[in-house]
């Protein structure tokens, strides 16, 4: 995940080094008040400020290397696969023949790695605004950054919204791997950005975006889903478990342009691909859309209850 809007004159977000106390990194944030995630630090690998955000990478004692942007954990090598696989494969296996894929954000390369597992995909374009995220990922997160090695990948360092304005009706699947809706990334959780994605999709296309946490953020999720439901043909919500994200869970907003529900995959991974998957499966694809009763009511309303 990464921020996708322009730099401001004043530094935004937290200084990652300030969150390392007595050898432990403590993630605290506005969106998860009253709770924190702590990881023990073996050593700091790099810390600096890019044009857009504070970047920290440290080696942890039990979770491998960890990427932190503006004080928020983006990736740990131990559990990143549960997020990368689901945000990529939910939309891709819901599309019969995805040939052109756009990734917005995702500078660590993990989503690219997963998209590249689909042989039917002919072109993969990534729009990452912060070259600094790409650079540290290639140096310290090679297991994710190997996604850049695929010959189908084209890298555009710049603003994803502006890119989509110039590429309308081009993509079968758009995946937005964004950070949380605070500061620069807040625009990615607003209706105009979803309208821009809709315009950049081909008919029958699918978008899948980072959809925050159903334990913490239904006040963000429900208004957004309500607002984009007038534009998209279907709008659904799925989730994955990931220990190092707030409350151990993160969701995905999955929406179609002239397509059907994405709750059932229309393609299945080959035997070779299945061997390389650690989290996604055909069974889990459908299960990911089954929400706890409280979340189903909070996000979709009482009228969405089963008959």
Largest sheet: 7 strands, mixed
Count of helix runs: 10
Q: What is the succession of H and E elements?
A: EEEEEEHEHEHHEHEHEHEEHHH
Distance linking N and C termini: 38 Å
Shape: globular
Kindly report the spatial arrangement of strands forming the biggest sheet.
9-8-7-10-11-13-12
Detail the topology: elements first, then pairings.
Blueprint: E1 20-21, E2 24-27, E3 37-49, E4 54-60, E5 65-69, E6 72-76, H1 80-92, E7 100-105, H2 110-115, E8 123-127, H3 131-140, H4 142-145, E9 153-156, H5 160-165, E10 171-177, H6 191-200, E11 201-210, H7 218-228, E12 234-241, E13 249-256, H8 271-276, H9 282-287, H10 293-300
Parallel strand pairs: 7-8, 7-10, 8-9, 10-11
Antiparallel strand pairs: 1-2, 2-3, 3-4, 4-5, 5-6, 11-13, 12-13
Helix pairs in contact: 7-10
Word description of this protein:
With 307 residues, the chain is an alpha/beta fold. The chain contains 10 helices and 13 strands. The chain has helices at 80-92, 110-115, 131-140, 142-145, 160-165, 191-200, 218-228, 271-276, 282-287, 293-300, and strands at 20-21, 24-27, 37-49, 54-60, 65-69, 72-76, 100-105, 123-127, 153-156, 171-177, 201-210, 234-241, 249-256. Helix 7 (218-228) crosses helix 10 (293-300). The longest helix is centred in the first third of the chain and has 13 residues, at 80-92. The radius of gyration is 18 Å and the shape is globular. Residues 3-11 and 183-188 have low confidence and may be disordered.
């Amino acid at each position: 995940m990464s921020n996708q809007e322009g730099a401001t004159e004043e530094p935004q977000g937290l200084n990652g080094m300030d969150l390392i106390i007595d050898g432990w990194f403590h993630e605290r944030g506005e969106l998860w008040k009253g709770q924190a995630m702590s990881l023990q630090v073996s050593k700091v690998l790099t810390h600096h400020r890019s044009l857009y955000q504070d970047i920290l990478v440290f080696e942890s004692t039990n979770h491998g290397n960890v990427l932190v942007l503006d004080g928020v954990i983006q990736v740990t090598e131990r559990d990143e696969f549960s997020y990368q696989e689901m945000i990529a494969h939910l939309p891709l296996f819901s599309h019969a023949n995805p040939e052109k894929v756009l990734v917005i954000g995702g500078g660590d390369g993990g989503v690219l790695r997963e998209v590249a597992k689909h042989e039917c995909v002919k072109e993969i374009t990534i729009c990452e605004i912060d070259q600094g995220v790409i650079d540290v990922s290639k140096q310290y997160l090679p297991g994710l950054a190997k996604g850049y090695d695929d010959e189908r990948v084209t890298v555009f360092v710049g603003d994803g919204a502006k890119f989509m304005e110039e590429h309308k009706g081009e993509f079968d699947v758009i995946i937005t791997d964004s950070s949380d809706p605070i500061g620069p990334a807040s625009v990615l959780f607003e209706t105009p950005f979803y309208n821009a994605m809709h315009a950049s999709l081909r008919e029958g296309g699918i978008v899948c975006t980072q959809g925050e946490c159903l334990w913490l953020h239904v006040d963000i999720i429900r208004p957004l889903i309500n607002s984009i439901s007038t534009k998209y043909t279907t709008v659904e919500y799925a989730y994955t478990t990931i220990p190092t994200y707030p409350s151990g869970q993160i969701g995905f907003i999955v929406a179609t342009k002239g397509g059907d529900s994405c709750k059932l995959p229309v393609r299945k991974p080959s035997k070779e691909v299945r061997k390389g998957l650690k989290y996604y499966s055909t069974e889990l694809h459908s299960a990911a859309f089954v929400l706890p009763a409280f979340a189903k009511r909070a996000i979709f309303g009482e009228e969405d209850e089963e008959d």
